[in-house]
Amino acid sequence: MAWMVLVLAGIMETVWATALDASRNLSRLWPAVLFLVALILSMTGLSYAMRTVPIGTSYAVWVGIGAVGTAAYGMVHDHDPATSARLLCLGLIVTGVVGLRFLP
Question: Which interval of the chain is the signal sequence (predicted)?
Answer without folding.
Answer: none
